[in-house]
Fold:
Amino acid sequence: MDDVAAHLPHVRPRAHDKYLRLIDAAQKLPPVVTAVAHPCDEVSLGGAVEAHRLHLIEPILVGPAPRIHGVAERHGIDIGGLPIIAADHSHDAAARAVALVRERKAGALMKGSLHTDELMGAVVARDGGIRTERRISHCFVMDVPGHLDPLIITDAAVNIAPTLEEKVDIVQNAIDLAHAVGFPEVRVAILSAMETVNPKVLSTIEAAALCKMADRGQITGALLDGPLALDNAICPEAAQIKNIVSPVAGRANLLVVPNIEAGNMLAKSLSFLAGADTAGIVLGARVPIILTSRADSLMARLASCAIASMVAASLRR
Structure:
């Protein structure tokens, strides 16, 4: 971890080191060949190059070559030796990047300076996409100051109002992610506004159903409990006060939100009020998709690449 930090002098030191641990673990793996769609601004191009320098990814830059070279020259980014696949515009770059995955020339996909809808549209296209039988979903792997371990939140970016059937895949995707990044035990809290089942609150009924599905082997690889409110999901004292006895309550490391609004607000609250970093990854396609925001820190971008590398390695097993 110290070596990683030493190579990132321009990243402000943080009181927590969970992302550094992820990066350190990923550096022990072969870097994953990553198609970077439309890296035409300083943030996206610089992040891909820095991840390459740290041996997390082997980027293939896909986009208008003159624009990529122009960004590199203006901002002093060394892209010497990196392959560039020419594309006319952002939509074309997304399609060509996805084609590299489909042709098995890339083991991960990374969003550059294009809209998420453009990239995901190419991913889910009926002709030429890279969908699988599994529902595509998004996870944040959050580095929250004062919280001992990384915290996974799903789904805050892709599925707007998932059905119970879709939540089964969303939960399983997140559990598989947790195992890929080395969680020794995956403890899943299905969140709602309360910890009791209320027929008037759909999220509580779905939480109970998901837990029973896990009991029946329809969801595997984790301990599930729900419904749980956020406080008694992550705070042992809150769970104790409510007399909730379970191996998950107060100790959850994977939070499943009822819908995109809840997930987005939870993740951004942690980011902007608690100083958390948010590494983003999309799962359920043929390869992991590194989905970052322009507001993400460099550390969050590198952590996203590290997570994608570990997920790609787990898919190869």
Remarks:
- The radius of gyration is 19 Å.
